[in-house]
Design brief:
It is built from five helices and two strands; from the N terminus they run ααααββα. It is mostly helical. The protein has one domain: Arc Repressor Mutant, subunit A (Orthogonal Bundle), CATH 1.10.10. This is Helix-turn-helix transcriptional regulator. It holds the Pfam family HxlR.
């Protein structure tokens, strides 16, 4: 699957609306989990692999490349870290996570 790029066709949008490109990227296995984890601070490949539990090294490498190419993470001497765009994204999505916890109570 190619990197979703705003302005190019992406999953769910022939026009590649920026929000649809972002949702395509974040909807890929473990992409959002990696962003969520890195908000706590830089992490090595091995720690990310442990956090993601069932992720294969191939898939983790692919997600890290996609997130780097999308300017959401960078590789540092401490491991992988969120860029300013990545931090801003987390701060926008974090309230959605809180809302989802309340919503999930409807299913208990």
């Amino acid at each position: 699957m190619a990197l979703p790029i705003p302005g190019k066709p992406v999953r769910g949008s022939k026009s590649g609306a920026p929000v649809m490109a972002l949702l395509d990227l974040l909807g890929r296995s473990w992409a959002m989990g990696i962003v969520w984890h890195l908000y706590k601070g830089p992490s090595t490949f091995r720690r990310l692999q442990e956090y993601c539990e069932t992720i294969s090294p191939t898939t983790l490498n692919k997600r890290l490349k996609e997130l780097r190419d999308s300017h959401l993470i960078v590789r540092t001497v401490e491991g992988y870290a969120l860029t300013q765009h990545g931090k801003e994204l987390y701060e926008l999505i974090e309230p959605l996570g809180n809302w989802a916890k309340g919503w999930a109570k409807n299913f208990k």
